[in-house]
Amino acid sequence: MHSQAQNTLPNTSKKVNNEAGLAIINSKAPYSSHYGKDALDVALIFGSYEQKVSLFFQGDGVHQLIAKQDTSLLSIKDYLKTFAAFEFYDIEHVYACQQSLLTRKLEPSFHITDVQVLSTTEFSAALNHINMYCGFKT
Amino acid sequence: MSTLHLVRQSAFATNDFAQCLNVVNQNDAIVLMDDGCYNVNHTLINNLLKQVGDNINLVASHAKARAIEANKMIKLIEMADVVTLTFIHSKVITWQ
Hints:
The complex is a heterodimer of chains A (138) and B (96).
Chain A: E1 2-3, E2 22-26, H1 35-48, E3 53-57, E4 93-97, H2 98-103, E5 115-118, H3 120-128, E6 132-136
Parallel strand pairs in A: 2-3, 2-6, 3-4, 4-5
Antiparallel strand pairs in A: 1-6
Chain B: E1 3-7, H1 16-23, E2 29-32, H2 44-52, E3 56-59, H3 60-65, E4 75-77, H4 79-88, E5 91-95
Parallel strand pairs in B: 1-2, 1-5, 2-3, 3-4
């Protein structure tokens, strides 16, 4: 986990989380590695201790949000289903990078509600408002 | 002499697919499986279609699990067909 100096970037037009807290960055596709599941576990642990958590999906990480996936075909547990529990853990800030969706020719049709699609500038501004981040991306 | 290329990584995340394209021959066959399924939406797939034409295969269950719909030029196959392909081609290269 790395800490980052709080940045004073201007507010973006969309509703972004301006409070301090933890940003979790997801940039891996959901099934070929454990990163997605680990990120989810960290988010839920912080959520259950009433810590502010924001989730950022970029790169291949946006695939974690896409609707109509079916893990039963891969014989693995569908951890993406647990994303539906975010509201019970007061995780309200879920951001997807618009550019990543466009590059992958993905429609913004997600399996959870309240995903905010942000442009590259808005995405980086939202990330810079948060002073702690945890990356699931190497 | 022909080669079967098993592409298992997303071209959006790694360079493997691009490297595969560099060595692919006209008579070769490609199988997109696991995260390689994401490559059907990558711009490089058009280069590959030019190089090997209708010899691009996609493992149907892996694509469906990832909510990916294939282009009509790409053949949908099962894992049993992958086994058959390994016998048809003299070499197999796994890109992962």
